[in-house]
Specification:
single chain; 489 residues; alpha/beta; seven-stranded mixed beta sheet; five-stranded parallel beta sheet; 33% helix; globular
Length: 489
Amino acid sequence: MPSKKAVVIGAGIAGIAAAIRLAVKGYAVEVFEANATPGGKLAEIEKDGFRFDAGPSLLTMPQYIDELFELAGKDPQAYFQYQKLDINCKYFYEDGTKLTAYADKAQFEKEVTAVVGEPAEAIEKQIANSAKIYELTAPVFLQRAFSGLKSLFNKEGFKALFNLGKLDTSRTMHQANQNLFKDERMVQFYDRYATYNGSNPYQAPATLNVIPHLEQHYGAYFPKEGMYGITTSLVNLAKILGVKFYNNSPVEEIVLKSKKAVGIKVKGEIINADVVVANMDIWFTYNKLLSAYPKLHPEKILKQERSSSALIFYWGINKKFAKLDLHNIFFSADYKAEFDHIWKEKSIYNDPTVYLNITSKLKPKDAPPGCENWFVMINVPANTGQDWDSLINSARQNVLAKLSSRLNENISKLIISESVLDPRGIESKTSSYQGSIYGTSSNSKYAAFMRHANRSSKIKNLYFCGGSVHPGGGIPLCLLSAKIVANSL
């Protein structure tokens, strides 16, 4: 029998991963989830014969998922299968340019040179720079607990500090990309990676040019059962290890005794525990679950600028489009204007960049015969009280006009099923403050160092994982946050 008990608040991907790691370490683990199903943002929608992955749609660095099975002594391939993509994404520009981002480096360089005239040397320089930033930051920052400058007092930390110039913190992503590439289409291509953590390339430090490395070096993948297959496979693994899940069980309070977490309150009942792990957005963790202890709140962190959010249309399309792939991007003509609308005007530009994900390309059962399931997303500001109904109506018309123009087809007439998710829904369904997808933004050179740590400095036995805390948002970093929590115990 386990001698210690841990409770996890929230069954997002990080919460599930933390539960697995704690169970492997010998803890009796219970996970409490407010929704009817686990997964958090990594959920699914089924409607009118169509299936959609509700949130994250890109899988990179699946080794962090495999690692969880290996820790438990299981063969990952027996529980979770995925395939590497030959094409990472197809890009459609407003001037009619079509660029295919091949996974193979040589093939991608050849495509870029042929389509936009950018020399292969520029791509190779970008790849090398992205790899160098990752090499310097991953061991000291991404894969370790971080609690201030003292965290850098080690071999890897001194190496990163000695090579500070190579981290490119003094320029923005856009400035770095504009300096490297001659063609504005390639500048826009690499600026887009800022949206992978909900930031603005015209403000975020060029250090974030590390992001392409995760996709270009490690590859992009598609799970056999879709992205929601990550959730179901890891929940199954957790259950094999004895983890207990309680859905429809929102946590009401983290119970403290002398600044020590001793359990949680669920439906009026106290659940005692030796360790409490919060996989809830840090803002709600403090303002809802620890509301009785305002003096213990990290005020500066809670007041930080939030990341961008998303407006997603889940469309069942009564046709198949051979020119489209699993991942597709339709760029805006004026990227700067689009980001100014999101970040300065807190609104939606009339020509937004559109991301179109179609899982039925690789998983045909996700749509009826002859149809496709379109996950159509645009980046939008966090919810600060905008008139979303009006914004959604205008955005829908603009998105349809854009796709119809680029695909030479009246898309509105092909929609036979529709669901919509906006920042308000993201906030209510996933407890993400203001509907921000990645917690805080990374729009300043210090933002990455200002995320909440994975262990409370004021409350003993309280830990944090998920996209709103160190090391950041997105599936790989959420999984790493769980690893850091387990290693901190």
